[in-house]
Amino acid sequence: MLSVLIVDDQDQIRQLIRDTLEGAGYSVEEACDGKEGLERYREKSADLVLMDILMPDQDGLEAIVALRCEFPDSRIIAMTGGTDRVSVPNFLDVATMLGARRTLQKPFELQALLDAVAAEVMN
Questions:
Q1: Residue 46 belongs to what domain range?
Q2: What are phi and psi of 11, to 5 degrees?
Q3: Model's pTM, two decimal places?
Q4: 91: domain CATH number?
Q5: Which of 4, 25, 41, 51 has a CA 20 to 30 Å removed from the CA of 115?
Q6: How many domains does one find in the chain?
């Protein structure tokens, strides 16, 4: 069974993603920020990490850099709802430059999530 680590500070988002992925047959772990996500990945690596960008304590961009430095083969899909504001950089583009392999703009359709996860774990 393929494993996915969800790193997101919003409980409702984590639960929705967990329910969707478990329903599709994936094993799922959760973390509420980048620091906890790194700790969980170190304890038990996942086949794929779904990383939110805008989080307290350690944001997703910092966590992507740390994860890719320590685990260069890690597979990461970055996601955020924070790129629609004109005054901030496009965080998903930055996440891609830092090593995320795919991105999802929140809110996203659950089928788009499943398609992105399936495409990434197949590669």
A1: 3-122
A2: -55, -45
A3: 0.93
A4: 3.40.50.2300
A5: 41
A6: 1
